[in-house]
Amino acid sequence: MEEFEYLSPANLPQLLQFLSFPGGRVIAGGTDLIPKLRSGTLHISSLIDIGHVEELRFIQEDAEWVRIGAGTTYADVLESPVLARYAPVLIQATRLVASPMARARGTIGGNIGNASPAGDSMPPLLVLDAEATLINPAGQRVLPLEEVVIGPMKTLLAPDEIIHHVSFRKPPASRGFGFEKLGPRQGMTISIATTAAAIELNTNQTISTARIALGAVAPTPLRCKIAEELLLDRKPVEETWKLAVEAALKNMAPIDDVRASQEYRRKVTGVLLERALQSAADLAKRSA
Amino acid sequence: MKSIQVNFMVNGKNHQIVTAPNRTLLSVLREDLKLTGTKEGCGVGECGACAVIMNGEPVNSCLVLVGQANGSTITTIEGLSKNGQPHPLQKAFVEHGAVQCGFCTPGMIIASKALLDKNPDPSDEQIREALAGNICRCTGYTKIVEAVQAAAEESNHA
Amino acid sequence: MREKDTLIGKSILRADAWDKVTGSAKYVADIQTKDMKFGLVLRSTEHHALIREINTVAAKQIPGVTAVITMDDVQGSKYYGPINPDRPILAHDKVRFVGEPVAIIVAETLAAAGAARDAIQVTYETLEPVFDPIQALGPGAPPIHPDGNLLAHFEIEEGDLEKGFEEADLIVEQTFTVPRIYPGYLEPEASLAEWHQDEHLTVWVSSQKPFNDREHISHVLGLPTEKVQVKVATIGGAFGGKEDSNLAILAALAAWKTRCTVKLVNTREESLLAHPKRHPAILTYKAGVKKDGTLTAMKVSSHMDTGAYGSYGIAVSQLHTETLTGPYRVPNVRLDTYLVYTNSPISGAMRGFGAPQSNFGSEGMMDILAAKLGMDPIAFRQKNIWRSGDRNVTRALVNQPESLQKSLDLVKEEIKRLKQIPPAPGMRSGVGFALSVQTMGLGHRVPDDSTNRLEWQPDGKILVRIGAPDLGQGLNTVAAQMTAEALGLPIHQVEVAELDSFVSPDGGVTCASRMTYSVGNSLLMASQKAIAALVDAAAELLRVDHVNIQYENGQLLRLDQPGLDPIPAAEITSRVAEAGKTLTGEATFSFPYGPGTPEHLPLGMPHVKFCMGAQVARVEVDPRLGIVKVQEIVAIHDLGRVINRVNVEGQIEGGVVMGVGFAVTEEMSLKADRHWVNNLTEYLLPTSMDAPPVIKSVLLEYPEESGPFGVKGIGEIPLVPTPAAIVSAVENAVGVRVTSAPIKREDLLAKIG
C-alpha cells in the first residue's frame, strides 16, 4: 500500500488544526479510500483520521431540525429512532448499501465527500432538502446539499474544509417518501440507478409538494426541480409520473460501463422513479 | 513514513503494536498476533472473509487501517469459544454441513454472530441480508442459513 | 464387511469442520516460518507483445531484495502444460495475455518486493491482439503461437447427416454463447516452498494435483522427484482452477534459486487474470426432427476460446464434443469443436469441463424444437432420451439411462407444484426445466489410476493415506466413511492423513467426478489387503495357520478355538509396532475401460461412465426492469448410491448456485477500455441474496455396479443443467427465449416489449 503519514486527531479542535496544514486528506470509514491506496491510484502524503473525533458522530433533533454528524456510520443510521421517525427514506437507502461490514464503517460525511455519482445517501438527503454545514479552521458555512458535489468524485470543499454535519427540517407527517435502487446483483451491490421521491397532497388529493432525486445516472446525484414542478396540482397517478419521468430523463447523463449501458440506465430509472413516486404518494395518502 | 503506536484489545487480551500506519488490521492480526483464522480473500472488502467484530460491529479488517483500530475491542474467530466451549454458531455450522472448504467460514460465523447479537430471532430473509457481505462459493448458502437458524434456536432456549 | 451397511448414506460430520470453525485450519497463506521471504510476480500488462528487454538492474539494488528471477534462471524445462507444454515458466520473448508471469521478486518484506517489482523495466513491442475465437481463425488474425491459433479440432460423425436432415419434417438452427466464468474459490492461489540444507525442496500447495505439481517442479528445476516433497495444506476451494501448477512452480523456482523459504500468494486480481477459467464458447446448432418429435439429425459447430495457453483445453473440448447432443438418441450427427488460442486469459479445467457449455446449447435446442413442433417439452424429451442399451454419439454404452425417465416423471410433478406458486406483486413467475449429463473419468487411454493406502495404527485405528486432495468437498470424510464401512469399524477409529508426496501414494488428480468412485474402489481393495495383512500378522504371532483366523469388525476370531474371546486388532498392531513395523494395505484402482470401449476416437475419448440428472427452476421476472430472481431450484440427481447425504446436498446446493451465477450475474469480459474485469465488484459472484432461497435435492439411486457401493459422481453435474433450466423458466415467465449466458437484462427488456 502507498506510504503516508497518519494523523489521528482526538477531537474537533485538533482536527481543525491538522486541516490547516497542507497536503492532508481526511479519511472517515475508509471503505472508498483504502482500496485506492492499496492499488496505488491515490497518492496522499498525510491521512487525517476523523474516526476518533467523537464530536462528529451524532444524530440530534430539536423542534424543527434533525442533524446528522459527518462521522455517523450507516449502522448508526439504521439504529436511530430519530431517523426512523423523520427520515425513513434514508433508512431504506441505507439498508441496501453494500454489506453490513461496509455499513459499520462507511459514514454519511464520507459518502458525500467521496462524491461518487452512485453515492446512496445522497438522493434521500436531497429529497429531504438537506443542507450541509462545512467547517474549516477559520469558520463554517452552510450550503444546500446539492451544491456540495460538483462532479464525479469532486466536491467544492476547500483543501482545509470538511463536512461537519448535514441537517434537514423535519418533514410534515403528511409527506410520503419513496426510494428505489437497482444494482447488478441482489446483495452487496453498487447502484446502477437510484431514485428518491417525496410527495405531499392537497386536501383535494392533488400534489402539493414534490421532490425528486436521482443517483448513479449523472456526473453527480441530481435534484430534478423541473420534473418536481410538473407534478404540482396534478393527481398522483401513473400518467402524472410519466410526465415527471420524461422531464427527469432530460437531466440524466448516464454512463456506459460493464454493469449496464446508457440506454438501460435510462429505461430503468424511469421505472424506478415511477415506483418511488407511487410509494411516496401511497404513504402521503395514508397519512392524509 | 513514521511508525505509529496502536493499542487494542483482541479476544480479551490487550495489545500494543508499533508499526507502519499503512498496514491493515487484517495484516496485523495475521502476521503480528499470529491469528490466522481471519482470512484475506480479496483485500478490498468484497468477500467478507476478513470479517472481525470491532466495537460490537462486524467489519472487513482488510479495510481498517491499523491506526483506525486504536482503542478498539476486537473479536476474531479464535475468540468465539468461551472456556473451551464452542459458540453455538460454531457447533451449528459443524452439525448442519455448513462448512465445506472453510475459507469463508470464519468471516461467515463472525457476521452471523453480529446478526444474532442484535437480532436473536431472525427470519431466513434477515439472515440472508445479514450475510450478503460474505461470499461462499462452495455451499450455496442453504446450510449456512439453516445453521444460523439452529444456533439462534439453541441460544434462545438456553 | 458388516451384513447391513450402517455408515453408508449417513451424514457423518466432517472431521475437519472443527478446525475450520475455530480458525485453526491452516491454508497455505497461514503458514509462517522463521526467515520466510516474500515473493511477488511481475505480470504482463500487455495483451500480446514481444519482449525486447527485461531490465532488472535497478530492482535488484533495492534494499531488502534477495533475488529477481527471470527465465534465464530456469535450468530445466522452460515450458510446461498439463497436456501440451506450450506455456513458458516465465515469459521471455513474448507475452500472450495480461497477467502472464514475467519475473519473480523475492525479498525480506512484501513492501521491498513491491518496490522492486515497480523498478523492473520491461520493454514491450505491442502486437495486435485478438480476443474472439472465430476472429482468431480468420484471415489476418495475429498468430499467437508458432503453429497458428487452432490448437485442436475434434469431430464426431455418426450415421448419415444429409439423409437425417432429409428425413426431418422440421429443421431448426440456433447459435448459443456462453461466457468466461471464473472459478471464484474464496482462497486465492498460494504456494510456499522451503529449500532444505540436504538439498531437498518442500512445496506447500493448494492444489488438485500435488503429484503432477511435483513432476512439473522437478522438470523445471532439473531435480529428481525424490528431492521434491509436495505437501497439501487445507484447500479453500478449487473447482478446476487449481489444476494448474503455475504458482507452485514459481514458488519452487524462487526457493531453489535463493536457497530460502519463499511464500507466494496471489491477490484476487491476479487470480482473476492469471488462473484458468471456464472456456467461453460459441455453439451453432442445426437439428432436424420429425413431426412426432423424433430427432433425426444434429450438426453442431462449437468454437471454444482457450485463451493464451492450452492448459486443459484439449481435454475440455473433447468432453464438450461428447456431450453436445445431450442425453438423447441422435442417429445422424456431425459435431465439430474448434479449440482456439486468443489473447484472453487462460481457459482450462473448471467444474463441468465442457459439459455446462454443451448443456446450455443442447437443452436450449430441445426447448426450441419442442416449441416449434407445438409439443410439450417433457413429452419431447421423453421421445428422445436414452434408453437401456443405448450408446452415446461416441458409441460408448450408457449406464443406467433409466434414471432419465424417472427424472422426467419427477420433473413433471415438480413443475405442477411450482406453477401454483403466485409471483410477488409486479413480478411474473415462470417454471422451466433441463436435463443433464456429465461424464466421469479422464477419458479413454488417459492413465487414470488412484492408489491409496491403509495403515493399521498401534492403537488399532486405521490411518487412510489418501493420495488425492480434499478440496473442501468432503473427499476425506467419505473416504473415511467407506473405509470404516469396509472394515466394520466405528467412524472415529478411522483417520485420514495429510497428503505428503514423501509418504502418500499417488491417488490421482482430484477432478472428473470420480473421486468417491475411484478412491472408494481403491480403498475397498486396500481394505481387503489390510485385513489380510492383519490376519497374517495375527497368525504369525499366535503361531497358527492364517485359515484359522477371521477378521470381523476390528477384531480377530479364532476359528480353531471358537470359545476364545475375540482379539482386538490393537493387540496385534501394537505388537507389530513394537517390532518397528506397520501393517498396511495398498491398492490401485484404474478407471475401467473394458474391452467394449470404442477405439475409433482420439486419445482422451470417449468417456465411458455417465451421471445424469434434471433440474426444475422457478423464477420471478420483473418485466419492467428485466431482473431475473431465481426463487427455487429442484435438483434431481442420480448418483448411484448416497454415501454421505449432507455432503451430497452440499455439493448440489453449491453447484446450483454456481449455475445461477453462470445464468444471471457472472461474466469475465473485456471492458471498453481494453481492461479485463479483474475484481469482485465487476465479477459478480452470487451472494446469499442472489442464491435461490429454496434448493430442494432429490437423490436417485440407480447403482453403478463398478462403483463402490454403487456410487457414481456428483461433483460437477449440479451446476450443469441450472442455466438452461433458468432460461426455460424465464421463457415461461415472459415469453422470451434467451440464447446467451449470462441473461442480459437489457436484452430481456428489449424482447419483453
Report on the architecture of this protein.
The complex is a heterotrimer of chains A (288), B (158) and C (753). With 288 residues, chain A is α+β, with helices and mostly antiparallel strands. Chain A is built from 11 helices and 14 strands. Chain A has 2 domains: 5-169, 2-Layer Sandwich (Uridine Diphospho-n-acetylenolpyruvylglucosamine Reductase, domain 3), CATH 3.30.465.10; 176-287, Enolase-like, domain 1, CATH 3.30.390.50. In chain A, 35% of the residues lie in helices and 25% in strands. Chain B has 2 domains: 4-78, Beta-grasp domain (Ubiquitin-like (UB roll)); 88-157, Orthogonal Bundle (DNA polymerase, domain 1). Helices cover 34% and strands 16% of the residues of chain B. Chain B is built from 5 helices and 5 strands; from the N terminus they run ββαβββαααα. In chain B, α2 (88-95) packs across α5 (142-157). Chain B starts with a strand and ends with a helix. The relative contact order of chain B is 0.16. Chain C is α+β, with helices and mostly antiparallel strands and 753 residues long. Chain C has 3 domains: 30-127 and 192-265, Aldehyde oxidase/xanthine dehydrogenase, a/b hammerhead (Aldehyde Oxidoreductase, domain 3), CATH 3.90.1170; 281-443 and 597-752, Aldehyde Oxidoreductase, domain 4; 449-590, Aldehyde Oxidoreductase, domain 4, CATH 3.30.365.10. Chain C is built from 18 helices and 28 strands. Chain C has a 7-stranded mixed beta sheet with strand order 3-7-1-14-11-12-13, with helices on both faces. Chains B and C meet through α2, α3, α4 and α5 of B and α1 and α16 of C.
